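=== RUN LOG ===
request id: a7f3
mode: sequence -> structure
chains: 1
length: 158
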Amino acid sequence: MDKDRDRIGAAMGTVPSGCSILTAEHAGRSSGVLVSWVQQAAFAPPSISVCVKRGRPIVELMEASKRFMLNVIGEDPTAMFRHFGRGFTLDEDAFKGLHTTPTEFGPMIDGCIAHLGCRVTQKVAVGDHDLYVAEVVAAASVNGAKPYTHLRTTGLSY
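=== RESULT ===
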């Protein structure tokens, strides 16, 4: 096997992922961030894992509340990519112009194909990201809707 960084990146880029908007709320503050490293982690209890780059403002809300909402993006990600692609500080209104429903986990964004209300059970430092494992304790989905599938040119950058 070749240990060349470019080849490693190209091979990692073939690992498919979806894209979702992770939202969180705590003490009257809320935000959202585009995430692509999400995976089912267990059947019982139903759990997912999600990686968030260390230092993202939303981490403060997730750490304080120990909860988040995962809003799964459908086949056409353009509007959500455009809205959440640049990121938000906690002082900005991350949801301006969007229709949302407040929940105990964070804002639920209208137009997404699934919503998973999650309770964080574990956090593991992994390189420049933190891996959160969370139990899914509430959910809703649009019957028959298909998620967006994402591949990268390289698995070494966004």
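=== NOTES ===
The first strand starts at residue 20 and ends at 26.
The chain has a mean pLDDT of 95.
=== END ===
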